[in-house]
Amino acid sequence: MTDIDDIRTGRHCVFAMHVHLVFVTKFRHKVFADRHLSRMEEILRDVCRDFEAELVEFNGANNHVHLLVNYPPKVAVARLVNSLKGVSSRRLRQEFPDLARHYYRANKLWSGSYFAGSVDGAPLSVVKQYIEQQNRPT
């Protein structure tokens, strides 16, 4: 069951849509330290805001990240993912030159693939807890 606080309104609709996203680094290389993940979370929140979406939960490890995003029905998940991955890759490369050695062919940080799972109701709290418990590198 969806919590009343998770229900949003648009111009012509009422909605509660969440997607669990997982992005993996190219070749699963261990790229991220805690400082990279902290900055990445800020970047991803900004991108979500541009889509009128909300980054509800974020966490990750040295070679992947988990996101729980509340998004409006007008947003195509594939377009959101493309922007999240593209902007985060570009901004991290600019702000952390030490990551340059982890970019492969055409300056790609992320693998071309991703996981996207729709979530709602009780599983939403389970997904949030799962993401919270992901280990961050030290």
TrEMBL record:
InterPro entries in alphabetical order: Transposase_17, Transposase_17_sf
Record-annotated Transposase IS200-like domain positions: 14-134
Superkingdom, taxonomy of origin: Bacteria
NCBIfam families per the UniProt record, alphabetical: transpos_IS200
Protein name as it appears in the record: IS200/IS605 family transposase
